[in-house]
Amino acid sequence: MKHFIVSIAFLLSLTLNAQMDKNSELFKTLAEKDSLLFTEGLNKCNIKLMESLVHEDFEFYHDKGGIDHSKSEFIETLKNGPCVNSTIENRRTLKTESLEVFPLYTETNELYGAVQSGTHHFGNSSPKFTHLWLLVEGQWKLSRVLSFNH
């Protein structure tokens, strides 16, 4: 059921074309979270930072690397993968103009999350990503990741 709700939210965000303006507070906040996640977290293998940004109920879907079904599994994948063999090919840069943010609201119009998508570069590869961020007790937490087109 949870996967169905996430899928519907994602599809609705695409059909409603309600992308946030790049100058909006929400867009800037999630662009900053993206930068922390990759520039400080992944590129520098700051595992503590990654742990703080990732939701306890986390899933990661990668078209070449499979599925991490939990936060702990994801953190172990980082520790035993990109953070072991830290090469320039593993460094991520964002294609800045590709970044989009779509807010998610409850029936009572309260912001509870956002879908963030874009394209980034790892060496010669330019995969796409879709992130589901949830607002939990005033903090943005990354809950779901789709990484594809590698």
Q: Report low-confidence residues grouped into runs of 5 or more.
A: 11-16
Number of strands: 7
Task: Tell me the name of the CATH class.
Answer: Alpha Beta
Intertermini distance: 29 Å
**How many domains, as an integer?**
1
Largest sheet report: 7 strands, mixed
Which CATH architecture?
A: Roll
What is the arithmetic mean of pLDDT? Answer: 86
Looking at the structure, what is the overall shape? globular
Question: If you had to describe this structure to a student in words, what would you say it looks like?
Answer:
This protein is an alpha+beta fold and about 150 residues long. Helices cover about 35% and strands about 35% of the residues. It has helices at about 1-15, 25-40, 45-55, 70-80; strands at about 55-60, 65-70, 90-95, 100-105, 110-120, 130-135, 140-150. It is globular and about 45 Å long.
